[in-house]
Each structure stands twice: as structure tokens, then as C-alpha cells.
Amino acid sequence: MDIINLKIKAAQIRIDLMQMITRAQAGHTGGSLSNTDILTALYYKIMKHSPENSKLENRDRFIASKGHSVESLWCILADLGYFPKEELETFSQFGSRLIGHPNNKVPGIEMNTGALGHGLSISVGMALASRREQIGYKVYCLMGDGEQAEGSIWEAAMAGAHYKLGNLVGIVDMNGLQISGSTSDVLSSDPLNEKWAAFGWNVIEIDGNCMEELVATFEAIDSTSDKPTLILAKTVKGKGVSFAENQVGWHHKVPTEEQLQSAVAELQQQIDSYRKELVANEYNS
Q1: In the chain, where does DSSP find H-type helix?
Q2: What distance in Å separates the CA atoms of residue 281 and residue 249, rounded to the nearest whole number?
Q3: Structure confidence at residue 114 (pLDDT)
Q4: Which of 128, 143, 204, 215 has an alpha carbon within 20 to 30 A of 173's alpha carbon?
Q5: Domain 3-284, what architecture?
Q6: pTM surpassing 0.90?
Q7: 201-233, pLDDT tens digit by residue?
């Protein structure tokens, strides 16, 4: 997809996740909205993967270490055909595969996550296996900024640098908020850029809700490097839904029907604007 179509797709995924959360009366709304652009760039542009063969040996691996923000991932996997889109209607219902955290009974999910701090350690092992077995896949691990308080993150950071895993990409969804307040107030981990660099990682700081920056950054990563890459993606919690943006209360909150309709209308306006831009570009070309 080109950049404008990626933006359209991200807005549609946000509509899908808002509808899914409202229907289920459960979900982590704010963080799923903030990470949607990151996941859209990875799944529709960057990663090598196959909905028809979710166990493809040389597929790139994605680990959602901040597993509680799974709603955007469920919507993307359904949209791509990893499972029927109708199954989104069962999200968080009794007996459903689509629970509130990644579940590896679902095609496209590499590991169960949810207990914060563990995803990067698993990603290090996967990246090391790819190199030793000469398979050639990359591993992308999405973490939260509040998750940086977990000690296991830093053990994995040391291991990734020690083994010179250039095929490992860590991404921090830096929306600045966690369940009990701002990350700076709850337990500050600043300066994250200097800390990750000191641990031997190639650190890149970007706007994590800017599709142009996301795609350009992911495409420029050199997997033959002797350093793993850490992307500090500055995002907005609740991105795309104005009444939820930068509101800590939307970490885990369900929209009312009225709020859902407002959010859908706002996101649809964004889609319509992008489509007009797309038509204008095609006309000018």
C-alpha cells in the first residue's frame, strides 16, 4: 500500500476496534488506538507474512509485548484473513479465542502475552534462532512505555546487544500514559533514548502516529547491522478519537453508543479526507 491507503486502512481499523470494544463492553481502548498506525505500517507494508500460511518458516515475527492493547491486532489479523472477520463479534465473550490478550490458538499470533516485560526476551530468542539457523526473518517487538519499568526488559536489552541481533527491532509505544497516570509520575524511565543507547542499541526517535515516518524508518533498518534497533515511537493515547486523546481514563474504558457513533463519524471524516487526497493525487499524476 502507498502512504495514503495506509492512512485509510489505519482509520478503518480504528473504527473496527471501537465497534468491537463497544459490542463486547470490554477492552483497552486508548493504547489500541495509539498503536494502530505502528501495526498498520508493519502488517500492510513492512513485514513478510502470509495469512494463507501462518506458519511460513521465513515469516517475520511480531510480538505484542504490551499484550493488553490487542484490539487493533485482532482487527488487523481479521482484515487480512487470518480468521473470519465475523469472529470479531465474539471478542471477550465466553469460549471465544479472541480474548483480551494475544492468544496463540489464533493464526498469526506467535505467543501468548499480557504479563508485561516478557515479550522482548522471547523476541531475542527468536531473532537469535533466525540468525543461527540462517532462516532470515526479522523480529518486531512492541512494548509500552510503562512497561519499561520491568527489569526483564533490560535483561533482554543486554542480551540483544550482546548477540549483535541486527534482525531484532524493538518499538516503544510512547503515549505517555498508563493505567494509573502518566509514566513520568508513576515511575519515570527517562531518558529512554540514552538508556537504550547505553545498552548497545541503535536508537531512533519518531512520531509513531506519522505513517510517513513509520514506513521510512522501518524500511531503512539494516538487518545486517551488529546492533538491534529500538524505535521510540511518540504516540497519542486514544489517537484518532478526539474525546479520548491524551485521557488516562481511556486506558481501559468502553464507549457508550453515543460516543461510538461520534468516534465513527470522526474517523469516517478522516477516511473521506484521505480519499479526496488520493483522488487528487491520481488526477494530478
Answers
A1: 3-24, 29-41, 71-80, 119-132, 151-162, 183-187, 192-198, 211-220, 257-284
A2: 39
A3: 85
A4: 128
A5: 3-Layer(aba) Sandwich (3.40)
A6: yes
A7: 999 999 999 999 999 999 999 988 999 999 999
